[in-house]
Amino acid sequence: MRAVMRIFTKFLLGLMLVLAVACARTPARGPAPGPGANPQLGDSQPHPWSSGHPYGHDVHGIDISRWQGDIDWNRVRGSGISFAFIKSTEGGDHIDPNFRRYWNEAAQARIPRGAYHYYYFCRSGAEQAQWFIRNVPREIGSLPPVLDIEWTNSKTCPRRPPPSEVKREASIFMDIVGRHYGQRPIIYTTVDFYRDNQLGDMRAEFWLRSVADHPRVRYPGQRWAFWQYTGTGIVPGIQGNVDLNAFAGTRSDWARWLQTRLTR
Question: Does the keyword Hydrolase apply (predicted)?
Fold first, then answer.
């Protein structure tokens, strides 16, 4: 009997040792790969955030263009997505072929949506504003228009104008579009473009791209309403990767923001 007990004791000690080693080799878990407030969302290449991550924000949304293909908008809404910015126009003669379809489908799914214009440096701000107005409906309940302004590798327009021209033409675009829709456009931009053109002195609400660190690190002192934190997001209802964005405040802040910033 004692021999049996000794064998059993050795077995238990061995099992405990195996478990202890296994646990020691298991890496500590960090933030969830998707937003904590929206557990159905994810990221195929989550970033190891060091100065604050976006996952605890209450309100998350997407921005999309033709490359997202067919979208199941009801699944998107059910996953916790609270808003969508849809590419509408580029320059003075291009419209995203899926814009009108996405615009209508998002509305049918009751997802607040707005349109963004991709800026082209070989057209004036006034020309581009008129092209945007020509193609984007002025509908009650729409999010404010967005001016997406960033450096591009355009073969048809490789120029990089000086900051004075960039801000002058962007302001003209924003003034014309703002008067038409009754809402001043939001500026979407990137770290290098913001820095190179000193955009912090523009009169605008900002949507900032920052996929490697918190905006307070990449854009010191700049207030923001939206943070694009990944281009490899996972959202039920959308095939492949999609851009994910966080709103700066709580759900109550979001409701108040919508009250003041929706087109009327």
Answer: yes
pTM of the predicted model, to two decimals? 0.87
**Residue 103 and residue 136: Cα distance in Å, rounded?**
9
- The band of 125, judged by pLDDT with boundaries at 50, 70 and 90, is very high
Is 150 in the active site? yes
Which uninterrupted H or E stretch holds 118?
Answer: strand 113-118
Task: Kindly give the residue spans of alpha helices, DSSP state H, lying in the chain.
Answer: 2-25, 73-78, 99-108, 125-135, 163-181, 191-197, 215-218, 251-261
Q: 163-181 and 125-135 helices cross at what angle (nearest 10)?
A: 30
Q: Is 139 in the active site? A: no
**Which entry of 43, 58, 63, 105 is annotated as an active-site residue?**
63
Can you read off the two tokens belonging to residue 251?
Answer: 């759900």
CA distance 15 to 31: 31
